[in-house]
Automatic annotation (TrEMBL):
It is an enzyme of class 7 (translocase). It catalyses: a quinone + NADH + 5 H(+)(in) = a quinol + NAD(+) + 4 H(+)(out). It is a peripheral membrane protein. Transmembrane segments: none annotated. Keywords: Cell membrane, Membrane, NAD, Quinone, Translocase, Transport, Ubiquinone. HAMAP family: NDH1_NuoC. Residues 3-127 form the NADH:ubiquinone oxidoreductase 30kDa subunit domain. This is NADH-quinone oxidoreductase subunit C. NDH-1 shuttles electrons from NADH, via FMN and iron-sulfur (Fe-S) centers, to quinones in the respiratory chain. The immediate electron acceptor for the enzyme in this species is believed to be ubiquinone. Couples the redox reaction to proton translocation (for every two electrons transferred, four hydrogen ions are translocated across the cytoplasmic membrane), and thus conserves the redox energy in a proton gradient. It is found in: Cell membrane.
Amino acid sequence: MTIRVKREALREVVEFLRDHPELRYNHLTDLTAVDMLNLRDEPRFDVVVQLYSIPRRQRLRVKCGVNDGETVPSLVPLFAGANWLERECYDMFGIVFEGHPDLRRILLPDDWDEGHPLRKDYPLRGYRDYVQPGFERPAPRVRGSLPRPRP
């Protein structure tokens, strides 16, 4: 089951789902984002929270839409496990989680300045040429589409 909430209400809704005695969604299994570029006009991203009720053995997906530049309330005050998951969303998509205790890159180097690699408008090979160790120059860029395999 999936429910959609306003991004401003995400923390309050998840807290209600966690604390209500008949619901008890007390385990955060995942938090991620989906770039909806070219699928709809706005909001650009969906933040997706996967919850699990251990006593009831039921799963629930909570989604909220967020545009580029908007913030989402952090779930770290509710689930400590949201810390690294929100950092990953920030790193890969550029989504800022308001109230996060230590929002910084987790997968990419701290000095990464080439954008957010999981956005659909991010170039397949990045914005700059990269020289692999042991090579003198970067691999040539492929322009256009790749050839189709022959039957």
